[in-house]
Specification:
CATH topology of one domain: BirA Bifunctional Protein, domain 2
Largest sheet: 9 strands, mixed
Number of strands: 12
Radius of gyration: 22 Å
CATH superfamily of one domain: Bira Bifunctional Protein, Domain 2
Strand content: 15-25%
Number of helices: 14
Order of helices and strands: HEEHEEHEEHEHHHHHHEHHEEEHEH
CATH class of one domain: Alpha Beta
Strand order of the largest sheet: 1-5-6-12-11-10-7-9-8
Structural class: alpha+beta
Mean pLDDT: 87
Shape: globular
Distance between the termini: 14 Å
Length: about 350
């Protein structure tokens, strides 16, 4: 494993390249307020972040990534358009599956905030990072969370079901369990059936929720129980979409063959992105499109996503990134701007260069 000094020196090399591409260097604090991250991700992030308390600042986290603080800084003070770069340590707990991975490592990144041409900005970020890493011969995979979101929004079902499915796009097991229930392939939980049947109507209200809130919850459950099942053919089309993996150059045609009209606009955006990548010299025949790419690891991305990975599947991605327009809306307090970025793990690069 590369030393901290070697990782830092490697990171400085990429940081210089990002500055040369027009980015302004930014240095977010190592300690970040926990409130914004908890609001974004819920309590799930506690399992991955190092959380502590400060007598004056309240609950804080060791920086789990750079994207959130960079967005906060830009939305508060940044001009438009803007390009930022950064280098520093991030901290993430590892579970038993990642026991061999480090919990503290460097990231060097490049972020673009630009309204003019989002697909061109996607191509700019990917081409810059992929070009810098080209000597390593990495495997490149792209996806688009926006295509999945559009497919869910296009389902012929009630808004509550669409909202629930949209929330769980990043949790594949939960998503597909919901789809099976909404399609009538599995029954609703017995406890839900008892509530809807009125079996607990005389029970006292328990807990922090007010009676009116609980009544609204029961009303939503009733609407769900009365809704028609999602058509089996629609479930099959979504399953085929989520399973789609092909050379990127084939992706638009393969997506249209699924007969999902709701994804046409997103497919057209993909075509524009591929054209922009081609113009920047990216070999589309060597690029893999995976429709489900990023579903378990890229929670705040809502459009284009990518990773560059070494041949060894045990290693984490050498680089990753994507589009996070929705995050700027959440953190912008009424303002928003299209944004895309990516990061490289310079310590991993140093390791791979040492093996070459």
């Amino acid at each position: 494993m590369a030393s901290k000094a070697a990782a830092r020196a490697t990171g400085e090399r990429y940081l210089a390249a990002f500055r040369a591409a027009g980015a302004v260097e930014i240095a977010p604090d190592l300690l970040q307020p926990a409130e914004a991250l908890l609001d974004l991700y819920g309590e799930d992030i506690r399992a991955r972040a190092y959380v502590t308390a400060d007598p004056l600042r309240g609950e804080i986290m060791l920086r789990p990534d750079f994207t959130v603080p960079v967005v906060q800084e830009h939305m508060a003070n940044g001009a438009e358009p803007a390009r930022y770069c950064y280098l520093g340590e991030v901290f993430r707990k590892q579970d038993h599956r990642g026991a061999s991975r480090v919990s503290e490592y460097n990231q060097v990144g490049y972020e673009v905030f630009d309204r003019a041409d989002p697909e061109a900005a996607d191509a700019e970020v990917f081409a810059l990072i992929a070009g810098a890493l080209a000597p390593l011969g990495l495997n490149a995979t792209i996806g688009d969370i926006g295509i999945l979101s559009a497919a869910v929004e296009g389902l012929d079902t009630i808004p509550e079901r669409k909202a629930a499915l949209a929330r769980h796009i990043w949790r594949p097991q939960r998503f597909h369990k919901l789809m099976a229930r909404y399609a009538g392939l599995v029954p609703a939980p017995e406890t839900r059936a008892a509530v809807l049947a009125g079996g607990r109507s005389d029970a006292p209200w328990i807990g922090m929720r007010a009676p009116a809130e609980m009544e609204e919850r029961i009303a939503r459950l009733t609407r769900d129980a009365e809704a028609a099942p999602i058509a089996t053919a629609d479930v099959a089309r979504l399953d085929a979409l989520f399973a789609l993996r092909c050379p990127a150059i084939e992706a638009p045609a393969r997506l249209r063959a699924l007969d999902l009209p709701a994804i046409e606009a997103a497919t057209e955006r993909l075509e524009r992105r591929l054209s922009a990548l081609d113009k920047r010299g990216v070999d589309l025949s060597a690029l893999t499109f995976d429709a489900s790419h990023g579903r378990t690891t890229m929670e705040y991305y809502d459009g284009f996503v990518f990773t560059l990975s070494a041949a060894d599947p045990a290693l984490p991605p050498v680089a990753s990134g994507g589009r996070y327009d929705a995050l700027t809306r959440v953190l912008g307090q009424g303002r928003e701007i299209p944004a895309v970025g990516g990061v490289i793990r310079p310590g991993l690069v140093a390791d791979l260069e040492g093996l070459a």
